[in-house]
Write a structure and sequence with these properties.
- This protein is an alpha+beta fold and 568 residues long.
- It folds into 4 domains: 1-16 and 320-344, no CATH class; 18-314, no CATH class; 368-411, no CATH class; 418-567, Beta Barrel (Porin).
- It has 14 helices and 14 strands.
- A hairpin with a 2-residue loop joins β12 (513-529) and β13.
- The two termini are 40 Å apart.
Amino acid sequence: MLRLAALATALVALPTSAHAWTIGSQLDYAGCHERITTAAFRATRAKLATAPLIPPTADESALIDDVQFVPPADFVHDLAAMSLLLGVRDNDLKGNNPLDSLQLIQVHGNPATQEEHCIRAASDDGTPGDAQALDRCKAFIHQRISEALEGLSADGTVDSSNRLELAVYVSFAGRIHPMLPLTYVRLGQAVHALEDSFTHTFRTSDGIQVVSVSNWIDYVSNGGADEAVDGPPHLSALDQCSSTDPLVVRNFKNATDAATALMEITLDPTMTTEAKLAAVDALSAQWLTYQPGCTLANKYCDAPEPSVVDNSACNASGASSGWLLIAGLALLAVLRRKRTLIGSLALAGGIASAQPAPAAGAPEASTAPTAPALPAPADKPADAAAVEHGHEPGRDEKTPTVAEVAQVRQDKELGSPFGVNMAIGGAFVHGGVAGSVGLRYRLNERWSIGIDGEWNPWITSAPWTLKAGVADLYATVIHRYPMKLDRVNLRTTLNLGASMLLFDVYGAPKYDIGPVIGFSPLGIDYDLGNHVRIVFDPLGVIVPVPHIGLIPLYYEQFRTMIGIQIGG
C-alpha cells in the first residue's frame, strides 16, 4: 500500500516545465503556441502569396493524422502549415512525447538551450544577466531566420523541396524523423522563442520593454537559486492563454502581433536577405529592449506579473494537477481491487486443491444432502461440535455435502473436445479494444490448442479517436490447472501468429503484415455447466508488429479480456 500511495503522490507531483505558453498535448489539445502561430500564419498568408499550401504525401498525411495535438481544420491537409507548427513545438519537445515528463525535464533543463525559450541561462546573473539573456534570445531568432531564408526560392516563395530532418513524436510510430520544408521548421523555432519572451519576462505597463527576465534552470538545479542574483522564477500562471487576466490577454495579443510581423518579414518577396535580417533585428529590439533599474529590491518596479493567479497548476503539457490526482487515486483503487481479486482466487484455488477426491468405487459416507463430504475425526470436543454442525474443525464455512460435490463434478464434465471461444476486451497501456472468435480442440484436461481471428482497433488520445488498428490471426496454446472440486480453474495462454495493419501510419503503409505474439500468464475459467465456461484473462500482453523494416512498427498492449467458451 505504501508503494501504491507513493505512486499516486508522484503523479500529482510531476514538475512544471519552462514551456512559457503551453503546447498542445494529449491532455491539452489546442495548446497556446499553436493558437498564436496559427493566427499569425493565417494573417501572413492573407497578405502574402509566398507560402502556398503543400499537399502532403500519403506518408506525410499519416504523420499529420497522428500528431500529439489537434491541428486546426485548415492545416491538416497542408504540409506547409503543419511543418510550421511542428517547428514551433520542437523547442519544447525535441522529438519526445508531450506527456513524457522525464524526457521533458531533461530538455528544458539543458543549459545550452535556454535561449530557445528567451529565458535566463545559469550564467545570466544579476542585472547584467537580464541583458545577456535578451541578447542571446535575439541572436537565436536572428540565426534561425537566417537559416529559414536559405529555404526560399529566387522569387521569395518557400521551396518545398528544400527540406530538413526533424525529430517528431507521433501516436503509433513513436519517435520519427520526417524531412520537412526547411523554411517552416526554422521559422517555427524562431517564432517559438519570440512568443516565449512574453511569458518569461516582466515588462513595463505597456508590455513593450523588459524590466526583468525570469529563470528556470537555477530553480530546478540541486544548488538552488537566489532571486536577487538569478532573477525571478518562471511563473506558470503566465503560460495559460485561456486565462482572462488582462495581463495574459495583453501578452497573447502582443505575442500574436510579434509572430505575425516575424513571418511577414521572412516571407516578404520584395525584401533582400540583408534587409530581412535587419528588419528581424529591429523587430527583436522593439519587443526585447531592456529597461534597467527594476530589481528584487524594488519589486521589479512593482511589476504586475507576480500577481497573476495560477488557476490551473499546469504540468509540462498544460494538464492540471487535479487531473493527475484523479488519475493517481484511480490507479491506486484499481491496483488495490486487483490485488484483492488475485488473492481471493489464489485462496479459493488452494482450498479446492487441498480437498482430495474420493477414490473410485469408494462408498459415499452419506447420500443425505446435508451430510459433510469429508467428515473429520472428532479428536477434540470443539472439533466434534464443528463436525456436528457440518463444519470442518477450525473452519467457519460449512463443508460441501456429497450432493454438492457431485453437482460440481457434473458441471465440470469436459464434454466435446471441440469448442468455440468468443471474447472482447481492451488495453489500458497503448489504448485499444479487441474482439476475437476462435476454435478450440482439447488434447486433455490440461492442454488445449486453437486458432483465433481478432480485430484490434487502436486508440489515440490526441484527440480521443479509434483507429482501424490491426487484424490478427494466431494459433493459441492453453495450459489449464483444473481445480478438483471447484468451478474455478486457472490457465496460462500463449498466442503466436500474423498481424495486418488496417490504416496508414508514418513509415508503415496500410495492409502491411508482420508477426503478433500474446501471453496471459494467469487467467481463469469458470464452469457454468453444460460444457460452457466464462474465460477471464485479467492481465495479458499482446504485441502486434504489422510492419517489419529498418524501423519496425510495434504496438504493445497490456489488456484485459473476457469471453465465453463452449466445449473444448
